[in-house]
Amino acid sequence: xxxxxxxxxxxxxxxxxxxxxxxxxxxxxxxxxxxxxxxxxxxxxxxxxxxxxxxxxxxxxxxxxxxxxxxxxxxxxxxxxxxxxxxxxxxxxxxxxxxxxxxxxxxxxxxxxxxxxxxxxxxxxxxxxxxxxxxxxxxxxxxxxxxxxxxxxxxxxxxxxxxxxxxxxxxxxxxxxxxxxxxxxxxxxxxxxxxxxxxxxxxxxxxxxxxxxxxxxxxxxxxxxxxxxxxxxxxxxxxxxxxxxxxxxxxxxxxxxxxxxxxxxxxxxxxxxxxxxxxxxxxxxxxxxxxxxxxxxxxxxxxxxxxxxxxxxxxxxxxxxxxxxxxxxxxxxxxxxxxxxxxxxxxxxxxxxxxxxxxxxxxxxxxxxxxxxxxxxxxxxxxxxxxxxxxxxxxxxxxxxxxxxxxxxxxxxxxxxxxxxxxxxxxxxxxxxxxxxxx
Length: 439
Fold this sequence. Notes:
It contains 16 helices and 22 strands. By secondary structure, the protein is α/β, with parallel strands linked by helices. It folds into 2 domains: 2-221, Rossmann fold, CATH 3.40.50.300; 242-437, Rossmann fold, CATH 3.40.50.300. A 9-stranded mixed beta sheet has the order 3-2-4-5-1-6-9-10-11. Strands 16-15-17-18-14-19-20-21-22 form a 9-stranded mixed beta sheet, sandwiched between helices. Helix 12 (321-335) packs parallel to helix 15 (360-377).
């Protein structure tokens, strides 16, 4: 999947604007949270001609192997630390060597990864003096400096630098229902989170971002807004027994939708209508594969006019649920020719619409009848339910597949309960809907 992600923005707009001004930035967090990857992503994003990357952990040869674009930059490795450790060189002298090189550069970019390793060889006064000297060099040269710190706790550096970014790994649970959070293994997933603690001179519109290190690259996810004008290129079915969802990544995760199956999309409250991005892709791809589509929309769902002309939008108009079941069957038989029905009918079912009109008990009866019809006719059902509805527990047990839509820091994410998957961020790249693993 990563071959298609080269044009994606990698760092938040606020951070990008902050670094263009020329400031000092502190990246902090526990081990393994992605600090080095972020520092290198920033460096690659700006492509500075004049750059010094000081790694206290990784030899230059290893960095060049994984980050070949670093060749041609000045890279200092752990061997420099040995001079400090044995006191063959003082921190001041090492700093003076760095400063001499920086002063020869035009708008230099300095990265110290990590500050902690340098600080261990200094007492507190030396640490403070060295840090202030680095800040002053940045201002004098109108350059940029990134310091990487192996802790999420507040230190004196937080008060000296212009910007602070904190990275963390966090557990994510299902949304609370009736005052209870699903704090069990079934709904626990792991996410990565970036917090913009301060960026001097920049308005922070989104304080926290979800991000991934997929493919060894740093990629943050901005707030997601659906674009229902996106029409996918036709995707063929995986095989004769399954139909494509219209999203390649979703097909890779679930294998497409089995004909005659009932598939459940569970939507948490803060998602709003953004899940319609997936609905629209499913509908369009079914149409392009010569299938018929019936949509019984959830309350508030609105589809674009171009798509609405190609599908049958049906809203229950009677309080007799048995008549409603009969009506759905008649629509399928009268509206579509045998060729369309032979290819397989797709029904997008807004369960809250039925609950609102018929109540939970009668809706269960309707769902059972529709599932039986699907199994007999080879129809594919995608049911949408909002978290907190009464018969959610029952309906999840009869679903062939079950996916949950969730909001994470204003990004739209999806994860599978059946099949069980990790978190995927939903994004639109080059007019294609992508599901990007959060790892």
